[in-house]
Specification:
The chain is of the alpha/beta class. The chain contains eleven helices and twelve strands. It is globular. The structure holds 1,4-dihydronicotinamide adenine dinucleotide and magnesium ion (MG). The site of magnesium ion has 3 residues, from α8.
Length: 337
Amino acid sequence: MSSQTPHAITLLPGDGIGPEVTESAVRVLEAAGVAIEWDRVEAGGDVIAKYGTPVPEPVLQSIRRRGVALKGPITTPVGEGFRSANVTMRQALDLYACIRPVRSLPGVTTRFEGVDLILVRENTEDLYSGLEHRVTAGVVESIKVVTERACLRIARYAFALARRLGRQKITAVHKANIMKLTDGLFLECCRRVARDYRDLEFGDVIVDNCAMQLVRDPRQFDVMLLGNLYGDIMSDLCAGLVGGLGVVPGANVGDDVAVFEAVHGSAPDIAGKGLANPTAVILSSVEMMKHLGELDAAKRIDAAIHATLAEPRLRTRDLGGKASTDAFTNSVIERLG
Ligand code: NAI
Ligand code: MG
């Protein structure tokens, strides 16, 4: 059962389907008996007029003070507009590791059974440095920043995680054949750290081949270690292997702070309609419970999700069912042991 003192957690509902799916996770956590004091804060396009930034200082302070946050997706307009709130937050809080466990779910039939891999994505640099400029009319540049410090840090994180979770193998994903300096440095740092972990198998794969191998047989991978852009793209691909974006959780982790959020975005096409699958955010909150040492609650919520997904009629539309976000959430709550 939960501890006496409530956990202090920052809640960022986000926009689009964010408020619907995060509310669902809040309800499930409450029903599971976990005492939480939420600090609800807002980030994204709606707060720019007031604060001049998508991630105001009070939001960062709330997260820093509590050390833990649950976050819904935040829309980033394509083209002109504000800088991504997500990228800004990850950089401001130095959430350098993005962890995404990708697992087959009982009852959710996909091309492969028994998929169980973990993506570890570098979260602070690469082509997400935000350094883009116009050189001259019709010519623009984006700067890919890769540092030894960030590469060693993410590699050490991935190897330590693999050992802690009893995993066997780490695969570094890169394009060092073309980007000899940037991806070359990433790969070299991974190799260097691998030498300190002789108990773990280490290999590397070029990113385009990796995409093909993943759709051919994802079970050949265990822990995957990727830079920011490849990690972003492969996360969505891997979500597709186990039922789609509605079911894959995630965490952005730094040395002092962890922000839990699903892989998916704000899904404007279904926002406000009660159609969103809250599984990914609920499973992100399960990861958050593990992080906080609430192992019993984590286990019970996980089991309730599995029991709900096992019944096709209880699923949301993305998984072929007819249930609304609320109805699915109620079914999960009813199945909490
Ligand atoms: P998306 O992940 O929002 O949606 C892609 C497709 O998956 C859509 O058809 C959507 O309906 C479906 N989908 C996503 N989550 C779902 C769920 N929980 N249940 C059922 N169906 C779901 O990706 P998209 O359309 O590329 O991005 C929309 C916006 O979200 C963009 O502004 C993007 O920048 C932002 N975004 C934010 C993220 C974050 O806050 N961490 C992450 C990814 C995107
Ligand atoms: Mg993404």
